[in-house]
Amino acid sequence: MALHRHRRQRTPPEPGKSRARKNVSVKLSRDEGSTWPVNKLLEDGPSAYSDIAVTPAGSILCFYGAGKTLSFSGSALRLARFNREWLEAP
C-alpha cells in the first residue's frame, strides 16, 4: 500500500491535473504508485503544505494548512485522522 497526500501543487501522479493549491485529498495506490485509483477529499477550498503519517495502531494522520485564503501555511492548521477502511469506502 502506498499513500500520497495531494494538494495539486506539485506535479501530480496523474497527468493533466491542476497544480492549484486547493482541495486537499489523499490518494491510495495498490501497485507501488503506478496507478492511484482511490482519491478521498479531506477538505475543499484553499490548502497549503501537508504531511502524512501512520500510527503504530494503523490510524492515518494528515496534517495540513487550510483556510479561506491561499497562503504559505493557510489561515488554520488541521489534523485529519482516518483509517484505511474510510479511505477505501465509496
Give the strand tally.
Answer: 5
Instruction: Give me the number of helical elements.
Output: 1
Report the average pLDDT across residues.
79
Shape: globular
Low-confidence stretches: 7-16
In which range does the helix fraction lie?
A: under 10%
Which secondary-structure class do the elements indicate? mainly beta
First-residue to last-residue Cα separation = 18 Å
- Sheet with the most strands, sense and barrel status: 5 strands, antiparallel
* Overall number of structural domains: 1
Oligomer: single chain
Radius of gyration over all CA atoms, rounded: 13 Å
Sheet with most strands: strand arrangement: 1-2-3-4-5
Order of helices and strands: EEEEEH
Measured by DSSP, the beta-strand proportion falls in over 45%
Question: What is this structure's SSE topology?
Answer:
Layout: E1 2-6, E2 22-29, E3 38-54, E4 60-66, E5 76-82, H1 84-88
Antiparallel strand pairs: 1-2, 2-3, 3-4, 4-5
